[in-house]
Design a protein that fits this description.
The chain is an alpha+beta fold. It has a single domain, classed as Ubiquitin-like (UB roll) (Roll). Helices cover 24% and strands 25% of the residues. The chain is built from 2 helices and 5 strands. A 5-stranded mixed β-sheet has the order 2-1-5-3-4. Strand 3 and strand 4 form a beta hairpin. The protein starts with a strand and ends in a 6-residue tail after the last strand.
């Protein structure tokens, strides 16, 4: 599974993207994994996008999904 970090989250994780081998099946498991890998991430607001669609609740994820971790943004 590929995870791409954007904006301030990228700055805090000090990486643009990672590929993980863990067998994560839900977005809640992903959030727990992120907390274990990057403990400070919970201090910052962020959204999870699965295959370019922002999700707001727990959702199933697959190892082939593209996961984006994005900070809040302002539209214009």
């Amino acid at each position: 599974m590929k995870i791409v970090f954007y904006g301030t989250i990228r700055e805090k994780t000090k990486t643009k993207s990672i590929v993980i081998e863990e067998k994560l099946q839900t977005s809640l498991q992903l959030k727990d994994w992120l907390k274990s890998k990057y403990p400070d991430i919970e201090k910052y607001a962020y959204k999870i996008a699965v295959n370019n669609h922002i999700i707001d609740k727990n959702q199933d994820i697959k190892s082939t999904d593209l996961i984006s971790i994005i900070p809040p943004f302002i539209g214009g």
